[in-house]
Structures are given as C-alpha cells and as structure tokens.
C-alpha cells in the first residue's frame, strides 16, 4: 500500500467491486430455481408458465452486470498493480544505485535482475488478479450460506461437508508453513538457475572454442539438477493431497445425490426435487470458489517471498555520506593500517596494509589470486568501507569526501568493462555527461578506438547490443578507456584492464594507457607482469598482507615471491609449440 500511494484506494475499490460482483453472480441461480419452480407448478400445461422468459432475461442481465462490475474491479486493480510494480522497480533501482559498488559487484547479475524484475512482477500478479479473486472467494461463501439457509438446510449442510474436507486438506497439507518453505526453496532454485544461466551464456565463446558441452559449467548443471530434484520431490509430495482436494471439491454433487436417495426413501415431493436441482447447480460455484482460495493462498506465499527478497536488497546498508564534503588537496593516496573482511568470511581479505602513492606516482599490485589486490583497489575507490584503519586521498579520509566528489577524483577501469545498449557516443559520454561530440571523438582517438568507429557506417552513433552491433572484449575495453579519458580524473585504478584483450588489442590498450596515465596517480592490478615493470613501486600481496615491495629491479635482486612470479611468467611467454606439433586432446 505504501508503494501504491494514492492508487491504494483503487485497490480497496477493486476488492469491493469484486465482492459485489460475486454476490450479484449468485442471483441468476435463484432465477434458474424460479424457472424450474414454475415449470413444476404448471406441469403438464407448460403454456401456463408465463414468467420463464422474464426470469431468463433477468438471469442474463444480472450475469452481465456481474461481469461488468468484475471487469471494473480488475481495471482498478490493474491500474494500481502496475503503479506499485513501477514504483517498486524505481525505488529498488534508485536504492541499488546508492549501495556500495562492491556489494553490487559481489552479487550475480542474474540474481539482482530476477529480484528487481520478477519479484516486482509477482506483486503485480497478486494485486491485479489474486487479491480481487480473494475478495470473491470470501464473498461467495457468505452469499451461498444465505441462499442455503433459505432453501433446504439439510441439503445445504450436506453440501458443505465435502467443501469442508477439501478446505481442511488444503489448509493442513497444501498451505501453511510448509508451503511457505516450499515456495522459498522454489524461488531459490529459480534464482540459482537464472544467475548461472547468465554466467553460462557469457562463457559460451569459451565453451565453443574448446569444444566443451554444458557439463563444462558444473554450477549451471548443478543448478538445473537441483531444480529437477526439488520439482519432482515437491510434485510427489503434493500428489495425494491434491487428488483428495480435487475429488472433494468436485464431488459435492455426488454427495447430494446420495443424500437425496436417503431422504426420499418415504416419497418424493416437488419442493425437495426443486431444492436438490438448485443445490446441484449452485455447488459448481462452491467448487470454483475453493479452487480460487487454493490459488490465492499459493499466490500470497509467492508474493510474500518476493517481498522478502526485495527487502534483502533494501535492507543492505548504504555507505554513510559525509555531512560536509571535504575537498582533497591533491591526488595522493594513503592507505593506513587498513583491515577489511567480507560479511561471513572466516579471515580478513585485507589485514593491516599500509602503502603510499604520491601525486603522479604509478604503483602496481601483484600477487597470487585471492591475495587481496582487487579488494584493496575497491576500498580506495570506496566500493566498501574499511573495518579499521583509514584510506585518504589528498590528506582527506574517503569517508569525508562526498560520493560525487570521490567519483570525480577516481576513474576505475574494470577487467570486464560493461557497455550499455546505447550508441558508442552515449556509452563514452557516460564519463562526462556534459561533453560535446568533439570531446567524445577526441577521447576515442586518445583511447586508440578510431579503427572501431571507422568499420561501422554510422560511426559514433552505432548502437551497441541486441539492436545494433557487438564488439570484442578488447574493443569493449578500449571504449571503456575512452570513457576514462573523457572523465579525466586525477586518480586512475586499472584492474586487470588487459585481461580479455587479444595481442593486437592489448598493444592498443597499452598505448592508450600510456597517454591516459600521464600526470595521474595510477594504481594498477596486473597478472601480466610485463605491464608493471616501469611502476614506481610494486607491492606483492599475499593472504591480505603486503609480502614485499620495491621496484622491478629491486625485487629481482633478492629471492622474492615476485622473482619467482617473474620467472614463471617468462616461461609462459617464451613457451613455444614443439616442432612435432600438438596432439589433439
């Protein structure tokens, strides 16, 4: 209701209209009863039945009126539901934009997409359809009880016995805490498949290159297998309760026939036959109502789970903003005894690290995977907040610098840069929204991107993505570097920026970096050690600590981790295929 705003009154109106339509929908059954009553009263002179036509048209009129009112109710519920869904998505996306970038990066994109899109869609389905149906399912039994009291109470009571059995089966075996748990497991399984599917699709080029199958992506296959296992188990567990519920809810007329056989042992009256026909006809409404209650209960479990998943994101704490932002005096970076651990981790990802990067100095972070390189770079850009210690830019703690000002100070080039479904011009212009077309073109030139632009007829206006063209990983990286050129921040963080570049693209990327890095404080993360040999200082990180530091030459003079890494790197670079060739795997 909070997200509905003023549209919440439409939700109330939809429930009232739906309940009203349910009650009006019962009137035609009364008209049918009056038609049968008149026929029985005038038989065999059926020409004396003068009210049949009027009763019939009255039944049609009330049936149409019920439909119109129900449609009006659905129009109200849909208008409110779409507003709620749109508001939820807007609020969630705005909140996600405020979350630490480290959190967003740590979550699988498929998971966030499913929560934002599918969970909000679940609320739309519930408000637009299930909530009015719930009102109908509550109003219909009230109307039926009143009508049953007017006619033969014995038949009315007997017809309620199977309905009560169906309701008990639904409440004890098909609903309640068990269904809530099952719905959560179901959504977890879908979420896992969605997330792994995204990762698998991204890895298809690798799969094709090495002639592998889906089984190469064990996590994706495991997600599918777990979903299959859960679905089969859940279906089997629900088989008997569902059979019992369906049989009881659809077998009301059969119980009435048995009751009629017992009650008419001493003779049959016209009134009893008339009432029996009425109950047999109207019990179909009771059956439909029970089914609506069942589906409404399931839908409520689904929407509650959807809301809980949205709350998981909305409950993530944002980084506190400085009340008064301070301006860094320069682009020097100081890391002072910093410690950081991810939530739920058993050990610190960064453990008491201190280092300095003076203005215009280039430093490199190297070391084995999991050593903390990317985490440390993320902390400098304040993707996370440190647990202890301090990170300062220009003598000011990053916590005291407003997020907008901090982003003006830092450019971060990721190893897997993303391009959005828009033109090359707009993709690059994200670095500086106020930039002119000429400034964007100059940034593209500086980033060695003109060969990319020239091969497309529409040039910088070429659309990227499903409605346009696709570029290679290396080309995508160069376009991301053009974005960094346009931003022109004094501090540049490069996180494995050549990881996905082929040799030709890597050469162009390195040329772009040489131009981009001039007069900037650069923090570079690299596995290709040839890219860091000219760094002013190289820090070797292992298990969250600085194992050693120095220039390339200084580290090679002693028996160091870096020296071993350099030796292994050169072996891999100088490796050549033997003259005999390579046997096919």
Overview of this structure, please?
One of its GO terms (cellular component) is plasma membrane. The chain crosses the membrane at residues 9-30, 55-76, 157-176, 242-264, 276-295. Residues 333-568 form the ABC transporter domain. Its main location: membrane. This protein has 585 residues and is α/β, with parallel strands linked by helices. It has two domains: 5-314, Up-down Bundle (ABC transporter transmembrane region fold); 333-571, P-loop containing nucleotide triphosphate hydrolases (Rossmann fold, 3-Layer(aba) Sandwich), CATH 3.40.50.300. The protein has helices at 8-24, 27-42, 52-98, 101-106, 109-150, 153-174, 177-202, 204-209, 218-250, 252-263, 270-314, 373-380, 403-409, 424-429, 437-446, 450-454, 473-487, 503-516, 552-556, 561-574; strands at 333-340, 350-357, 362-366, 388-393, 396-397, 410-413, 491-495, 521-525, 537-542, 545-550. A six-stranded mixed beta sheet has the order 6-7-8-3-9-10, sandwiched between helices. A four-stranded antiparallel beta sheet has the order 2-1-4-5, covered by helices on one side. The longest helix is centred in the N-terminal third of the chain and has 47 residues, at 52-98. The two termini are 61 Å apart. Mean pLDDT is 83; it is low at 576-585.
């Amino acid at each position: 209701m909070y997200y509905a705003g003023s549209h919440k009154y439409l939700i109330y109106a939809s429930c009232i209209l739906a309940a009203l339509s349910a009650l009006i929908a019962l009137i035609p059954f009364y008209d049918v009863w009056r038609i049968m009553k008149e026929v029985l009263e005038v038989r065999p002179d059926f020409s004396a039945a003068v009210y049949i036509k009027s009763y019939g048209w009255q039944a049609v009129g009330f049936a149409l009126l019920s439909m119109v009112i129900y449609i009006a109710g659905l129009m109200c519920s849909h208008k409110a539901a779409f507003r709620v869904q749109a508001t939820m998505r807007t609020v969630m996306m705005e909140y996600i934009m405020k979350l630490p970038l480290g959190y967003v990066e740590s979550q699988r994109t498929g998971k966030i997409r499913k929560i934002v899109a599918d969970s909000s869609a679940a609320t739309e389905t519930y408000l637009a359809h299930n909530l009015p149906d719930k009102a109908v399912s509550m109003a219909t039994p009230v109307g039926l009880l009143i009508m049953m009291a007017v006619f033969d109470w014995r038949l009315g009571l007997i017809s309620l016995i199977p309905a009560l059995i169906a309701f008990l089966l639904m409440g004890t075996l098909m609903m309640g805490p068990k269904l809530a748990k099952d719905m959560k497991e179901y959504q977890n399984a879908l979420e896992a498949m969605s997330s792994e599917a995204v990762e698998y699709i991204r890895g298809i080029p690798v799969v094709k290159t090495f002639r592998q199958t889906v089984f190469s992506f064990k996590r994706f296959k495991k997600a599918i297998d777990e979903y299959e296992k859960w679905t089969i188990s859940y279906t089997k567990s629900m088989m008997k309760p569902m059979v019992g519920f369906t049989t009881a809810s659809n077998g009301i007329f059969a119980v009435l026939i048995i009751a009629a056989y017992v009650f008419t042992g001493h003779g049959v009256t016209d009134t009893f036959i008339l009432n029996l026909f009425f109950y047999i006809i109207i019990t179909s409404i009771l059956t439909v109502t029970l089914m609506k209650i069942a589906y409404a209960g399931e839908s409520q479990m689904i929407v509650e789970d959807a809301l809980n998943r949205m709350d998981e994101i909305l409950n993530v704490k944002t980084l506190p903003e400085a009340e008064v932002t301070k301006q860094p005096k320069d682009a020097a970076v100081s890391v002072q005894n910093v410690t950081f651990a991810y939530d739920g981790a058993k050990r610190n990802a960064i453990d008491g690290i201190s280092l300095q990067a003076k203005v215009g100095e280039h430093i490199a972070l190297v070391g084995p995977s999991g050593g903390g390189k990317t985490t440390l770079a993320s902390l400098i850009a304040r993707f996370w907040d440190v647990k202890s210690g301090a990170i300062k830019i220009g003598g000011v703690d990053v916590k005291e610098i407003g997020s907008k000002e901090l982003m003006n100070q830092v450019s971060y080039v990721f190893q897997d840069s993303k391009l959005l479904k828009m033109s090359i011009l707009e993709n690059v212009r994200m670095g500086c929204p106020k930039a002119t077309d000429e400034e964007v073109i100059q940034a593209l030139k500086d980033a060695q991107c003109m060969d990319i632009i020239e091969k497309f007829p529409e040039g910088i206006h070429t659309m990227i993505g499903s409605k346009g063209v696709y570029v290679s990983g290396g080309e995508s990286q160069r376009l991301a570097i053009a974005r960094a050129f346009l931003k022109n921040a004094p501090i540049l963080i490069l996180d494995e920026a050549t990881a996905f570049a082929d040799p030709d693209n890597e050469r162009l990327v390195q040329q772009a970096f040489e131009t981009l890095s001039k007069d900037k404080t650069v923090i570079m993360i690299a596995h290709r050690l040839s890219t860091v040999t000219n760094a002013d200082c190289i820090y070797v990180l292992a298990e969250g600590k600085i194992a050693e530091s120095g220039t390339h030459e200084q580290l090679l003079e002693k028996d160091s981790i870096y020296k071993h890494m350099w030796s292994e790197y050169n072996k891999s670079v100088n490796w050549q295929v033997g003259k005999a060739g390579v046997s096919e795997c």
